[in-house]
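Dataset card, provenance and construction

Sequences and ligand SMILES were collected as paired inputs. For each pair, a complete structure of the chain with the small molecule in place was predicted and serialized as structure tokens. The example below shows a pair involving magnesium ion. Curators did not alter the output after generation; any descriptive sentences attached to a record were derived from the structure itself.
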Amino acid sequence: MNTPQPSSQSNSGLFRGLARVLPFAGSDSVRLVIGMAIALVSSGFALGIPIALEALVDGPLSGNDPSLVWPAVGVIALLGLFEALFVYLRRVTVLTPGTRIDSRIRNAIYDHLQNLPVAFHDKWQSGQLLSRAHTDVSLIRRWVSFGLIMLVANAIAIVMGVAILFTWSPVLALVFLVCSIPMFVFGSRFRSRFAGLSRAAQDQWGDVATAVEESVHGIRVLRSFGRGSDSLERFAEQASKGKHLEVVKGRARATLGFWLVWIPDLALAACLLTGVWLASEGDLTTGQIFAFFATAAVLAGPIESIGYLLALTLEAHSGINRIFDILDEKNGIVDPESPTTPKNHSGSLIFENVHFSHDSAQPGTPDLLDGINLEIRPGETMALVGVTGSGKTILTALPGRLYDVTAGRILLDGVDIREFDLVTLRTRVAMAFEDATLFSDSVRNNVLLGRHDLRDATRAESDAVLNQALSIAEAEFVFDLPEGADTVIGEQGLSLSGGQRQRLALARAIAAAPEVLVLDDPLSALDVETEARVEAALRKVLATTTALVVAHRPSTVMLADRVALLDNGVIAAVGTHSELLATSDRYRHVISSLDADGKFISTEVTA
Ligand SMILES: Nc1ncnc2c1ncn2[C@@H]1O[C@H](COP(=O)(O)OP(=O)(O)O)[C@@H](O)[C@H]1O
Ligand SMILES: [Mg+2]
């Protein structure tokens, strides 16, 4: 559950990393820049207050003209009002860009996940994908619409403020700057420590999401084996790791916050000492000292906020890295540049010296599929037999390009399948798997999933296809559902039995009316009687369709014209069932392991 993700962990430099969200901002970047400008103006108003104060102290308050007090007070109140108004304006301005960037990134991730090959999804935990598409995207939204803007605006305000300090008194400003140097030391130390922490925490929350996802998904198994409390323990362990990392992060933030408050105050104390001395020398007026400290007080806010904003920025950076771990994944299974459309549609399927190995395979070990040569003639039904783990499922996933061969080629109607565009290929080759996935949708939409052409068809037309497929797959139970074929079946069809789900998945493959039908033991969850009926009906479909059928049961083998034995990564024998029984020891051995009661072999051998 806790395996590290095979991510590229693209740890780009901070600025280059952050800049990678820019393309998602599009025209909204204009609004973001306006937001920054507004934020700057509001800091400008805040910095204006000390200037008014100086005028007040050195002017009316020094006794020259008491009548000027009220206008000065009015100016200060007005500056405060404008500051508040511009803070409000900034918030309103950046509201929509943040949410729009958020949804663009989410869509890009979803789109990319849909396109990435099955091999990618084999490697990645769903919780990691979920947390990246969710939590990390939210982090980025907060950073774009708040962190980024305030970081830029506050940094500029600090520079402006320090410049103003210099106009009041270069000596005091210099003292202030020198005394502030330790802040940069603590800041950069924080940066390197916090970057690693935030990545670790975000990865950990991904593992927590995986733990939740797996236990919800496997709730029946966990319940039935009384493993609910174990699963809770594992979850609690994951969550407590996450909690620990958050505490460590919080502590790091608090420590930086401590220095960001205390160091400027220390600097001010040093300035006060120098200021008093300068005033006694007559180099500085009371008003100037007053204004200097008022400006420094205004700066305290932005300086303190830098710690929080820096943390937010670093979190957004690791969020961006985590998202680009996904977006940077190359999709190797793509349409060819110039797809071919072969003239004949006979449906012959030929494997030519096909190799396949998972990229996680040890180098030096033989490939899982180590040179498959197999010809399935047009209209022929070929059963595929092999022990568990021999690679049957992988082999059946190859003709539809769920995985690509690592060497060799597969020909459909004499054309390398990589020369078809994927949509064409996948309408020609339909699959049904042992593990039948159904979507939260009506039975009708689930079964007609592969029929893009029926999207604009009349109800009668689609009903004809639907009913025929349901009938062949012995899935007439559908008509007893509350709303018949329009009943929405639960998430992943959980409310249906395994056998019912398999029959719908089979109906889906049949409804697609493919040239080549690939069935990975889609009858395994059926009772013997239903299986026999489905097989009888399938025989009719299979008579006209080229088919490759993985058989875990002897009765499925009986559907086939010929049988291929997959053994040690190669097709060890091909022939009719009785031929193989007569000639291949290995076949007899594999078949007997499938045929628990031995009836099947004895009747055939004696026949
Ligand atoms: N992502 C993967 N990385 C490495 N090996 C894998 C991966 N997925 C499956 N395998 C291995 O590939 C082998 C073939 O699997 P499969 O085609 O499902 O066999 P079958 O359907 O014949 O039982 C199995 O031994 C399995 O452990
Ligand atoms: Mg299998």
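Derived descriptions for this record:
The two ends are 51 Å apart (CA to CA).
The chain has two domains: 25-327, 349-606.
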